[in-house]
Amino acid sequence: MDLLNINYEKYSLKNGLKVILHQKKDIPLVAVNIWYKVGSSNEVKGKTGIAHLFEHMMFQGSLNVPKEKHFKYIQEAGGTLNASTSFDRTNYYEKLPSNYLELALWLESDRMGFFLPALDQVKLDNQKGVVSNERLQRYDNQPYGLAWETIITKFFPDNHPYSWPTIGFMDDIKSYTLDDVQNFFTQYYSPSNATLTIVGDIDLKETKYLVEKYFAEISANNKIVPIQSSAFSLEKKITLSQKEDVQLERIYLALPSVEIFNENEVSIDILLDILAGSKSSRLHKKLVHNLQIAQDVSAFQFSGKYGGVILFSVTAKPGLTTQNIKQEILNEIDNVNNNGITENELLRAKNVIKSQFVYSLQNIDILADQINHYDYYLNEPNSLAMDLKRYADTSIESVVNASKNFLTKNYLELVISPKK
Fold first, then answer.
1. What are the tens digits of pLDDT across the range 59-113?
2. DSSP conformation letters of 173-233
3. CB neighbours of 296 closer than 8 A, spacing ≥ 6?
4. 249-276 pLDDT per residue, tens
5. Domain topology for 238-418
6. Fold for domain 9-215?
């Protein structure tokens, strides 16, 4: 079977639930992956973080599944499960022996259709505490933990759907009420706002019967409010600095990028890999090995439905500051703009990206999530080969043009320094 050619069946139930089935019978496992088309971008100022709260609340029990039993049932069946929230979506997923498919579908359907009857103030207060502690541990009390939040709140325009952190602000987390939770669930956790993808050792006829059995009677809500957003650029350079309880100084440079699957997205990915993607990258060799002024170097691009950001991060060597690091980054960007990149650099970046991508798809739970990813953004689950071809077709010229068009504009600079 061609790993990059996904034979699938896609259909919708009468309540609007979209279903994608992909039969993969080489191992007796099944992955159940459901995407709700709601993330932190659907929130409003003053009520941030509620999408992420649902990632926790949805494991607190539903009408027929007591609190904490979702984890217990799946793990006792020899499976694994988790969930995640991003700007654009929330997903829930299980991987388990294929003879337990019905268990996973029952659990997912019960919380989709019967979450509210089991909701109470005790559960909400408990999870508000859990999320508050998560924020303290992963952000507020973590070295450099507030950097991303600081950057996006100043980088994106006010009220842009990406201008607040997915976990939410602490005051907002503490303010959630039962009405907030009920209204959010009613609006967004509808079968008409979800896609259920099932991948693995399945019988297609039996699986369709089970999906109908457990999901068909769940009522739909079609009152989704569309997000209004438009492209933006930084009108001027933004310079920020803050002192934190860290040992080493670190500098971040953020620049506007493109929305996901934009024609420039892959050229930027390859460019960033060449500049800072590995120990053999240009900036790592220059800043860490040659000049010995940096402890580490990284760069990545986030691209979402409503825009993107390019982010460089460099930590100074002990006893040094980032004073010269920014200029060296800008010098290397000028070097790319004036002298280009080599064929070997381009080929290495392509091979790294391809190998990481193909290797990850050997896990059926990742494959199921990737199918949902493509369907959400492209409305075509079988987009693996197309996606890789975008990278294979990228030329030296397009990478250099990406540098000239996206790395020479105004940027946000954040320097985090140790407290004296």
1. 999 999 999 899 999 999 999 999 999 999 999 999 999 999 999 999 999 999 9
2. HHH--HHHHHHHHHHH--GGGEEEEEEES--HHHHHHHHHHHHTTSPP---PPPPP-----
3. 288, 313, 314, 315
4. 999 999 999 999 999 999 999 999 999 9
5. Cytochrome Bc1 Complex; Chain A, domain 1 (3.30.830)
6. Cytochrome Bc1 Complex; Chain A, domain 1 (3.30.830)
